């Protein structure tokens, strides 16, 4: 340590990593699903994960917010080691927004109710503040006029945009998306992608998707996974445009 560093105290974390995954293994019984994953997502970055069904993409996302417990390896979120046995898991999850293929809205609550319930119960916000935050986020996803509408009266694309707004209302440092448009009719996919495209400038995002045009246009980096391992990663124009590995090429030939 130099004299100046001693004087200034511990240097701040300047790596800026939102997610750091090192040597991540995950098995379900005898089935080894993740075989040693190393990835980093920097703050502000948008990283898309692509790969065949069953390659472990969802398991990777679920290990980041501990919906699955890693078998071994280290996962850090914003510098906090979430794989530390003593970590405050609820505290970590609160900092991570997650959007799934299925929208999982509460059917008996309006759009506004869906956005305020966790803010009030988990973050302890009062009604007025929770509603103000909810309205701001409904505006961000273009659904201001739907605040009093129930999920059943919304299209799939609108429901997914409510789910995104709900996650944003918790003020996450990081958003995880697991095939957010895969359950949608094709004509509804574009609205959801447009919302995500706008968010890309504001939020760190790790997105599992089969939407190659989204990955090409929005991602800073693309990670191709196959059989529980990262096969290649790099800028989209390289991984999607000029893949180096035969497995990436054959996957892209099937989805493009
Ligand atoms: P992807 O999202 O890339 O399609 P997943 O991460 O969902 O892949 O699954 C990877 C593998 O792990 C698959 O073979 C799947 O059947 C298996 N798997 C996922 N979750 C579980 C679980 N809870 N128990 C047992 N096997 C699982
Ligand atoms: Mg999946």
Secondary structure: elements and pairs:
Elements: H1 3-8, E1 17-28, E2 31-42, E3 46-50, H2 57-64, E4 72-77, E5 80-81, H3 89-94, E6 96-99, H4 111-121, H5 127-140, H6 156-169, E7 174-178, H7 186-199, E8 204-208, H8 212-218, E9 221-226, E10 229-234, H9 236-239, H10 246-255
Parallel strand pairs: 3-8, 3-9, 6-7, 7-8
Antiparallel strand pairs: 1-2, 1-4, 4-5, 9-10
Residues 57-58, 178-179 line the site of magnesium ion.
Helical content (DSSP H or I, runs of 4+): 25-40%
Principal-axis shape: globular
- Spatial arrangement of strands, main beta sheet: 6-7-8-3-9-10
Number of strands: 10
Q: Total helix count? A: 10
Mean pLDDT: 93
Beta fraction: 15-25%
Which class best fits the helix and strand makeup? alpha/beta
Q: How would you spell out the order of helices and strands? A: HEEEHEEHEHHHEHEHEEHH
Summarize the structure in words:
- The chain is of the alpha/beta class.
- It is built from 10 helices and 10 strands.
- It has helices spanning 3-8, 57-64, 89-94, 111-121, 127-140, 156-169, 186-199, 212-218, 236-239, 246-255; strands spanning 17-28, 31-42, 46-50, 72-77, 80-81, 96-99, 174-178, 204-208, 221-226, 229-234.
- The strands form 2 sheets. The protein has a 6-stranded mixed sheet, with helices on both faces.
- Strand 1 (17-28) and strand 2 (31-42) form a beta hairpin.
- Helix 4 (111-121) runs parallel beside helix 6, helix 5 crosses helix 6 and helix 6 (156-169) packs parallel to helix 7.
- The longest helix is centred in the middle third of the chain and has 14 residues, at 127-140.
- The protein is globular and about 50 Å long.
- Mean pLDDT is 93; it is low at 1-12.
- Bound molecules: adenosine-5'-diphosphate (ADP) and magnesium ion.
- It is found in: Cell membrane.
- This is Amino acid ABC transporter ATP-binding protein.
- GO terms for molecular function: ATP binding.
- It is a peripheral membrane protein.
- Residues 19-252 form the ABC transporter domain.
């Amino acid at each position: 340590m130099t004299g100046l560093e001693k004087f200034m105290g511990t240097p701040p974390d300047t790596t800026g990593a939102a997610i750091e995954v090192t040597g991540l293994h995950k098995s379900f019984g005898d089935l080894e699903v993740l075989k040693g994953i190393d990835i980093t997502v920097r703050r502000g970055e948008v990283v898309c994960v692509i790969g065949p069904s069953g390659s472990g993409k969802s398991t990777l996302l679920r290990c980041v917010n501990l919906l699955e417990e890693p078998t071994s390896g280290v996962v850090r979120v914003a510098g906090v080691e979430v794989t530390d046995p003593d970590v405050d898991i609820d505290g970590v999850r609160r900092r991570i927004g997650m959007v799934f293929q299925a929208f999982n809205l509460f059917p008996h609550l309006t759009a506004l109710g869906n956005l305020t319930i966790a803010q009030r119960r988990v973050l302890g916000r009062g009604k007025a503040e929770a509603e103000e935050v909810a309205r701001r986020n409904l505006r961000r996803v273009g659904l201001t006029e739907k605040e009093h509408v129930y999920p059943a009266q919304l299209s799939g694309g609108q429901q997914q945009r409510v789910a995104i707004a709900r996650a944003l209302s918790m003020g996450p440092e990081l958003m995880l998306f697991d095939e957010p448009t895969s359950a949608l009719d094709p004509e509804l996919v574009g609205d959801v992608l447009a919302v995500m495209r706008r968010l890309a400038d504001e939020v760190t995002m790790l997105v599992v998707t089969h939407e190659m045009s989204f990955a090409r246009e929005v991602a800073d980096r693309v990670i191709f996974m196959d059989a529980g391992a990262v096969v290649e990663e790099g800028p989209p124009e390289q991984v999607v445009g000029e893949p180096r590995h035969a497995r990436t090429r054959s996957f892209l030939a099937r989805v493009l």
